[in-house]
Design goal:
CATH class of the largest domain: Mainly Beta
CATH architecture of the largest domain: Sandwich
Distance between the termini: 77 Å
Helix content: 10-25%
Largest sheet: 5 strands, antiparallel
Strand content: 25-35%
Number of domains: 2
Number of strands: 10
Radius of gyration: 22 Å
């Protein structure tokens, strides 16, 4: 009785090991879908797939928000594909802001490396605001799918790194969703209670039409 059971167990164990990959480096040449990128064949994986050097370079903050985000998500860092993690660098010049936005695909943990950053998020159920000015070494969490923001709270440049619970957390910035596309002005007015002049001004600034 014991030997047949042992034989069956060994077959199950060997088949499980044969079907499980240690990791799934993104194959950018293959189709991708809702589940993520296809896996590169293990024999074609190199160390360069598992290393990302872009976070050493400060982002360009010469823009309307005076800030820059340098992501190391699965579309740029193939090694994190399928692992449930990713990271990004945030550079904020004096007066810089990462506007209200959401990450529909993952939660975020932010650590301040330099300067001070006012950060907060708004709950979905009660619209409660959680707000804190973070100093060097402080860490704050932003739950998945909730509106949140970061603002440079000092007179010098600020630097932070954000880790995510997804290789592709996604991003939607409220200002750009409303004013950087062709959503008709009258609909923006109706759904935001702003007046038409304000909406048209913001569309002009952010590149929207209609």
């Amino acid at each position: 009785m014991f030997l047949p059971i042992l034989f069956v167990f060994s077959l199950l164990l060997s088949s499980t090991h044969a079907s499980v990959l240690d990791f799934c480096v993104a194959d950018y040449t293959a189709p991708d879908g809702p589940a993520g990128y296809s896996c590169k064949k293990p024999a074609k994986v190199t160390i360069n797939d598992l290393v990302f050097s872009g976070l050493a370079i400060p982002g360009n903050t010469s823009n309307i928000i005076k800030a820059a985000v340098t992501p190391a998500f699965a579309d740029k860092f193939p090694g994190v594909n399928g692992l449930g993690v990713s990271i990004a660098r945030l550079d904020l010049a004096p007066g810089g802001v990462i506007p209200l936005h959401i990450h529909p695909g993952g939660s975020e943990v932010l650590i301040v490396i330099q300067g001070s950053i006012c950060a907060g998020f708004i709950t979905g159920a009660t619209n409660t605001v959680y707000l804190k000015t973070l100093q060097k070494g402080d860490v704050m969490v932003f739950p998945q799918g909730l509106l949140h923001f970061q603002v440079n709270a000092g007179g010098s440049s600020a630097l932070a790194f954000a880790s995510f619970s997804s290789p592709s957390p996604g991003l939607q910035i409220v200002d750009f969703a409303l004013f950087a596309n062709d959503l008709p002005t009258e609909l923006v007015v109706a759904t935001t209670f702003l007046d038409a002049a304000q909406v048209k001004k913001l569309k002009a600034v952010l590149g929207g039409t209609n």
